[in-house]
Amino acid sequence: MEGTDLATILAWILFWAILIGALTLLLLRVLRGASVLAQICLVVVATVAVLVTGMVSAFNAMFISARDLEVMWYILAIASAVAVVLALMLGAGVSRNAARLVDAARRLGRGETLGNVHTGGSAADGASHGRNAGPAMTSELAELAKELEASSRSLAESREREAAMETARRELVSWISHDLRTPLASIRAMAEALEDGMVPDVAVGYRKIIGQTEQMTVMVNDLLELSKIQAGSLRLRTEPLDLYDVVSDALSDLAPLADQRGITLVGGGDRQCMAVADGPSIARAVRNIILNAVLYSRPPAKVRVTVGPEGGNAVVAVEDHCGGIAGEDLPHLFETGWQKDPARGNPGDRGGSYSGAGIGLSMVAGIVQAHGGTVQVENIDGGCRFALSLPAGGANGSPAAGHAFPQDPAAKADQGDKR
């Protein structure tokens, strides 16, 4: 073949390739909203058309015999038919898999949880899904299917958490309403009795009203503190703080209530145990833990509070005699609004229910975690041990194990329930 003939053949092939390619791009633009199957078939048909026109141009230039030309037409026809069939199979598989992904996305949008998005690839898989098996998904579609499944699992977990939070919120509102109703009813009854002159000692009546008011104030303050913690708006003014003094004040404050319930408060540990903390917040947390121990210990019993360094941190440990807590309940103690039994039994009952609004311990956990510390609870012989661990600050003094904290009999006696 001469060079001019080769150039002519290449020119015709290039002409037909450019022409058919341009027409194909135009048709793809027009059919951009069509199915993947139609677009794949169009591309394959265009490729075959370029091949056929190129071969015809070559045949005409080479002046081959009619018999040879007929054979070449048979070869082109068979090759074109096989190419189109393969394109149809590939396009049908891709289209089917894309339809499955569309259906999975639609079900995901309806809030359904997706299982394994079927990817085809075997007759057994196709039969199990009631349809003919097609080619397996391409790597891109398979990756998309995995992402849809992962998104479905994440959404399902989010819905479960949201449902749990909503349930806890409703229960918390119900329990708080219950706990506020009791002192309000007591205040109203005492006020009506005072108004009617039915109280022999008016001063005692006023003291009872003040006591109930203080109980409500404690609960409302706890709620405000908890809301700040959950909203992330709790502002801490940390400074070196002697936990011995904090625990000493809490024991003095709770001594009358402990005496009233037949509980003995015993303090011990280091006379100087420094931590980096916000004084009012930590004082509230320590007080709630000790109050919790007083309310749930079985009289006559001792509640032991110790302060000292442990593992590089400053630790306040409170040991009570509540009889212990079931192992399955321990992880839930610091959840907001969690109660062992909605029937709300009496504190200290071994089979027991945890009464109160369920905000005291969750508030303690929030305060301690905001300081970068931890709070832990474990069962010990006859009761539980709560440990508040805070970042240490300053030098701790020499131990004075067994030293009793001072107690002030004049402190307030009537306090609210926390657990």
Please list the strands of the largest sheet in the order they lie side by side. Answer: 6-7-5-4-2-8
Query: Termini distance?
Result: 99 Å
Rg over CA atoms: 40 Å
CATH homologous superfamily annotation of the largest domain: Histidine kinase-like ATPase, C-terminal domain
Q: Specify the helix fraction band.
A: 55-70%
Number of helices: 9
- How big a fraction of the residues is strand? 5-15%
Order of helices and strands: HHHHHHEHEEHEEHEEE
Spans of at least 5 consecutive residues with low confidence? 119-135, 341-357, 395-419
Largest sheet descriptor = 6 strands, mixed
Q: What is the count of distinct domains?
A: 3
Global outline: elongated
Question: Which CATH C-level class of the largest domain is it?
Answer: Alpha Beta
